[in-house]
Structures are given as structure tokens and as C-alpha cells.
Amino acid sequence: MADSSCTIVPKKKVVSPVWDYFGLHADSEGKIIDDGVAVCRQGNGNVRASGGNTSNLLSHLRTHHPSKYTLVLQAQREKAKESSTASSSSTNASQATLPELFTKTQKYERTTRRWREITDSMTYCISKDMLPIYTVEKEGFRRLTYTLDSKYEIPSAKYFSSVAIPALYEKTRETVAVEIQSAYYFSSITDMWSSSTMEPYFSYTMHFITNDWTLQSGCLQTLFVPKDHNTDNLSEVLTETLAQWKLEVGRQVCITTDNGSNILCATTLEKKRDLTKAQNDLGVPQHSLVTDCPTRWGSLIKMIDRILEQEACIRQVFVVDRKNAHLIPTWQDLEVLESMKAALGQLDDFTDMLSGEQKVTVSSIKPVLHVLKSKVLKVCEGDANLTNSLKQRVLDYLLNKYDDNDVDELLNVCTYLDPRFKGVYIENEVDLALVKDRLAREGTEMIEDQEGVSEPTSSSQSSSAVSDPSIKKRKLSSWLKETVELQSSSSTPQTLDQKINKEIEDYLKLPMLDAEMDPLQWWKVHMVVLPTMAKLAQKYLSVCASSSPSERIFSCSGNIVSKKRTLLKREKVNMLVFLNRNLH
Known about the structure:
Elements lengths: L6 E3 L12 E5 L10 E4 L5 E3 L6 H10 L1 H28 L4 H7 L8 H16 L10 H10 L8 H25 L4 E9 L5 E10 L5 E10 L6 H14 L7 E6 L14 H11 L16 H11 L1 H8 L12 H14 L6 H5 L9 H12 L8 H17 L3 H12 L12 H23 L7 H8 L9 H14 L6 H14 L9 H8 L4 H10 L7 H13 L9 H13 L2
Parallel strand pairs: 5-8
Antiparallel strand pairs: 1-2, 2-3, 3-4, 5-6, 6-7
Helix pairs in contact: 1-2, 4-6, 6-23, 8-10, 9-11, 11-14, 13-14, 15-16, 16-19, 16-21, 17-18, 20-21, 22-23
């Protein structure tokens, strides 16, 4: 609080009219005592105004002097109006066009870090979001970029096509190449697809399990294949792909492929407005009709289920339209649809189990077939003849699909190595014995191949290691490890076959994992006590149960090679598909 000798002086160099009602304390010589505290000229004390802030001053007037507060607001409006008028006349006199602004602003050099950062981000956006390369030359995109950073000059579409995207491709390719070299075993998915210009392409996707027990996948190649799509030509393309990525054929566990033709059928129902009205009239849920797509699992049964749900609405829409009256479902049609729903309705529950890409799927084939055979597709006396016939045909198709001896043995091995199932779904003792023999044989070969070990270390070798005078300082862990080895070596040495068989027995003694749990995480925990079995699981559980990942690549490729991008060069297709599937 200032003493009686203080005077009130106006604040200098202020713009706001609120200061007409406030001043600052000054001493007898006129020197301001504290410019952060304003004093009300109406006699209502001091108000904090640090740094010239007027918020507290306005609040003080609004509370204690409403009439003065109104005058301040009016003064502020008039001043703002005058300022706007002056600014508008000045702008109209010398407003620059967009090209002039580009010319006047000093641009980033292409060697600067900021220019490279923005260009790299644009390249990533084009590749990841499947944007046409010519997007960078569109006026709206260029205006947006200028607004975000006026100093950045966008390169041409040719630069992105010939320089930026190939550079990002090479960089990402090197990263992926390093990642996949850590995969000791891997599985593959291959398939053919045609672009909108009817050009045939070959896609190759690799799957493997990392040392951290994570299932990884990546589309490595999308190649134009002009030759006949026979076995020899496709085998040659596959061999070339493996060679380019330095992948050994012997490390490839399995190849999943779909040899069916991609025939797309589409059925459309018009008069959506009438359908909505019928749904409102009849109190039926306002759901759109679903179209069947042969390449999308479960779409047929979803279409049937939706038609049965909307049958009354469909009838109301077409009953007044003679041209389309034949589309009204008859009672025979409805019986067929009901039978198909009864036979196939539950199959959709197994779709996700077999079509996933980030989880183990191959070991679920045997359990799924068992459930389908014993429950879902089992012929029942109470079902219609058509329902039972459909069940039997679907079951026969699935069983024939996996009727090959080599395929059956592979599925048995994969199921056995899944701690959720183990040997439960292997049908007979002969197959179970074959699986154990195969695992023991491959485990022995794996150890000999990776470690160069054929016989256990003798006690004399261990003793010589203990007494080696060249070792000056050793950790406690190494002494304890040798103590364990010396104790184990005092007993009868075990052969590699005996060790692996002991691992198999220990594996079977462990409790089975819950069906909802992740088998890879289970192996990550137990790989210390079951090292050889863990390696075998890492080898086989990367196999995919279906070619769904290839179908996803087709969808991605269709967005890239669209009707507006039919002139894309084939090597650019490979780069863009690769980047979209591998950029993170």
C-alpha cells in the first residue's frame, strides 16, 4: 500500500481505453513505484496488472463500475472498426497473388534438413495411404502445403516417382532384409492376381516367428508375370524371389496358396428409399442388404441371413413393381435359404480362427475339422434333407482338401507343437508315433546344424576348461554353470536323441494351455526349459492356415492400380505395394 506522499500518474504508451480509469503509483519526483499494480481512479483500491495485462482491470470495472465498463467496451468496438477499415484499404491497394507470394518468400534449399523432412513425410504419405503420385501437383494440395510452410517448394510428381519413392523403397527394403535374415525358418504365401488393366501379377508374402516370439509377416515381392501361369513358370518366379532376398529354400517350411480363379459376382438391389420406407412401416431393423463376394469368407451366409431378415420388406418393395416381381422370394426360395443358413450359419465363427495374420492359425486346422465333423456339420435326423446334404458336401470338401499324407503329417506336427492342443486331435497312435519320431529326428539335425554338436561334452574336456590357466578373471555365473555341467557329466552321458525325447516327455507333462491364450507367449516363457522343442515350434507355427494375407494384398493392389492409375509402371507397382505393406 502506497503512503500519502504518493501520487497517481497515467501509464505511458498504452492502447486500451481501460487505462483511462486507472493509473500507477509514483513518488514525489514522479517516478513509478510499481508498474505491476494499477490504482483505480474511482477510489476502489489497487488492481494487479502484471506486464500491462488488462484482464483484471476490465473485471474490476465490470464488478464495481458497470457504467465505465460499458464505455470501455464501446470504445474498443469503435477502435477495432477503424483498424479493420484501414487494414482493408491497405490490403486492397497492394494484395499479392499466390504466385507472387511464392516468388517473394525465400524457399528452402533442397540440401536443408527441413526440406528433406517434409519431402520424406510426403513420400511416406503417398506410399502408405496409396495416394496417386500426381496428388503433389494438384492446386488444393499445393495451397495446403504453402499454408503449412510457405518456404517449402514441392518437387514435381516426376521427382517423387523417379527419386523419392525408389529411395524410400530401397531404405525400407534394407530394413526388411535385415529383419528377415534373423528368421531361421519361415513359411510363405503366394498367389496370382490381375490389375484393373488385366495385367497378371505374382505376390509373395513371408511369415516367420522372431526370437521374441512375435509372428511377423511382410509382402516381399509383387512381380509382373507375362508368361503362362503353369507350374514351371511360377516355380521359376518363386526361386528368383527367394534368391533376390537371400532366402534359403531349405529354410522354407511350407507354401500356402490359392489356385482358384478370382471370379467376382455382384448382385444389386435398387430402390433403397423404398426399402427404408418398408422397414419403417414393418418395424424391421434398417439394415442394408449384403452382397456375396467369393473371395471374402462368410459373405454368403451374411447375405442369406440379411435376406431372411428383410424378406417382408423386399416383398413389399417389389410387389408393386411388375418388372421386378420375379425377384420376390418364393416359399421354395425361403426353404432353400433356411436350409443353407442351418447348414452353414456356424461356419462363420471359425473364419477368424483360420484367416488371421498376426496370430498362430495352422495348428487350429485339426481342432476345427474335429469340431466341424463331430458337431457343426454332423448330420441330424431333425434337419431337412437339403440341410444334411449341404453339411455332408461341405465336410467332404474340407476332408478331401487335407487328405494328402504330407499335408496331414504337417498338420499333426503343428498341432502337436501348440500347447493348447498337443496330441489331443491326432486321431491314432501310429500318427502320434510318427510325429514324435519326426520331431526327434529334426531336433537332432537342428542341434547338429546350428551348434555343430554330435555328442555330449566329456568330463575330461570340462575339467580341462576349469583348470585353464589362461582365464584370469571369471564371473560367478560361469563357475556355477561349470559346476552344474560337472555334476551332470558324472552321471551316464545322454545322446542327443535321448535329450530330445526327454524334452518331448517333459512337454507332454506340462498342463495344456487354455484355448484362448497365445501359444507363442507360452513358448517364450518355456523356451529355457524346452530349447529344442521351442526351436521346432518357432519353425512350424509360422505357417498360415489360409491364403487370406494374399487376398489382403489384392485389395491393397486394387487401390494402387486403380482406373485412374492404369499407366503405373510395373516396377512402381511392386514398390508401392511393398511400401504400403511394410511401412510402420
